[in-house]
Structures are given as C-alpha cells and as structure tokens.
Amino acid sequence: MFNALVLNQDENKKTTATIEQLSTSDLPDEDVLVKVDYSSLNYKDGLAVTGKGKIIRNFPMVPGIDMVGTVEESADSRYSPGDKVVLTGWGVGENYWGGFSQYAKLKADWLVPLPEGMDPIRTMQIGTAGLTAMLCVMSLEEGGVTPESGPIVVSGAAGGVGSVAVSILSGLGYSVHAITGRPETEGYLKALGAAEILSRDEMSVPPRPLEKQKWAGAVDTVGDNILARILAEADYNGVVTACGLAAGFKLPSTVMPFILRNVRLQGVDSVMCPYAKRQIAWQRLMTQLPEGALGDIAQLIALAEVPEYAEKITNGQVQGRVVIDLNA
What we know:
Blueprint: E1 2-9, E2 15-22, E3 32-41, H1 43-50, E4 66-74, E5 84-88, E6 103-106, E7 112-113, H2 120-142, E8 152-154, H3 160-171, E9 176-180, H4 186-192, E10 196-199, H5 200-203, E11 215-220, H6 224-233, E12 234-242, H7 256-260, E13 264-267, H8 275-288, H9 293-297, E14 298-302, H10 306-314, E15 321-325
Parallel strand pairs: 8-9, 8-11, 9-10, 11-12, 12-13, 14-15
Antiparallel strand pairs: 1-2, 3-4, 3-6, 3-15, 4-5, 5-7
C-alpha cells in the first residue's frame, strides 16, 4: 500500500483532494511501474487541485504533471528496474494518473532517462517550468537572438518558468529585464541575474500598435495586455516566445509588429514536445542552469501540504518552485 493525493468531485461539482491509501492494482494498466521520489507543484497543478480551472474532466484523478523516480517493473525493453527516469507533460496529471503518488504506472514513451549525474531533487526543482523555460531559450536562439542582440524581457518573472528563464538567460550572458507584480521579489530576481525590474502594472497598460523598440527577445508567461505590449515594444527582427496565460488567453494586439518590424511570435509547448528535443533540453538544463540558483528558487514540501500550496500558487503567493517529497 502507498499514499496518493486523489481528486474527486462531490454532488455540487466541487473538487475535493484527499490522501488515500492505494495499491499497485489500483493504478492504470501501463508499461512501466515507477517508484516516485519527487514531484513538483505547477500552476496547472494548483488549478487542478483547487478546482479553479477545468484541468480535470475525469474523476477520480491523481494530479501531478511532473515526477522523477526509479523504474521498478517494465514491460518495455527501453527501461529496466533501477533506471532513473523523469516525466513531464503528455497529459499526465490531467488525463492520466500523475505524480502526486508514491507509485505510478506510465507509458514508456512518456519517460526520459535522467541525465547522468543529475540529482532527483534538482530535477524537480527544474521540472516542467524549467523545461519550458529552456525550450523558450532554445526558441530565442533558433530565431537568431544572441546576448549581443539586446535586452530580453521576462514576464511573470518571480514564478516558476520566469525564475528559471531569468537564471538561464543571465547565465548565458543576456541582459534580462524582469516583469513582476510583487515589489518584494526585486532582491530575489536580481539575485537570479535580472538587470532591471519592471512593474506589472506599467507593462499591463494597453499599448499603441507600435511602441518604442526595446526588446531583442522575450519570454512571456502571462499573455493578454503584457504580451501585447511586449510585441509592440519588440525590436526589428525580435523574437517573442509565449508559453503561458496567467493573465488571460486573449491577445489584444495588431499585425503591425509582425509586418513592419518583422517580429516573430513563437509559441512554446512542453506538454507534447518531441523526445529528442526533450533530451537536448534536459542535458542543457543540467549544465547551463546555474547550480546555486535553485536553492533560492525552490522549497520542499510534503504530500499532505499540497492542497495548501495549491491554493497559494493560484493566488500568486508562491515564489519560484515547489518540490514535493513523496516520502516525507
């Protein structure tokens, strides 16, 4: 028997989250049985656990879109007992039982071997947020943006994706300008490498079709007016990566930045990201994300604390990354 956080809906369609004792026979019938060591709490997980977002459609459900652990049984030749693996995305924790459990049964196609030498806690400090941040960095590079191109702006900078993006980009030599709605995080963001701090309120003001050119590139995690302003302020040939919608899914912009300044808006998705690209991103995260940054980015909690922190993360009260110790 083992512990798992299980979501259900009551007769009023309200989501309930309780820790239950399960056995491996309760798990879905998939290729690989993994003993989960750590998971992490993402914004999407917070929406699922609190029921504030329509993330879960089939109940009961074990949430948790990230996990790292050790293979115990495998019906797939690619993995053997004792292998260390990491999983992010693929709808796990949304459509399939996820990582907020001491054991999980998973499709082999969803797994990536843990890079040699990478610590499991560090892996979940990185998690989906870090993988998404690295994919954004790779998209900026693919668009020709270099440290010499000019400043990069990161929105939602004190959140999971934003924190890791600030750290990676500054470590690679970019001048990073961080947007936050929490003035108290200024010291934290500057410690991660941010050169300048920008006010969320200021950046949320609806822009004109074109504003003064400021940004060679951007990592946007929030959408809506902030993304519209970033586009209006992007340099000629600028690349803007979009990976989140914390402020809303609308884009109140015009075609002007695209047809007059040759700006590229690049969507970034980590959920269905192909295996080969995931491998490259994880290898780069191990070597290019400054080791010391993660201690400030992450906090460690027990499974029983997940409902409390799910409420906090959906209310914008979590700084950086939250790692869940499944054995605490």
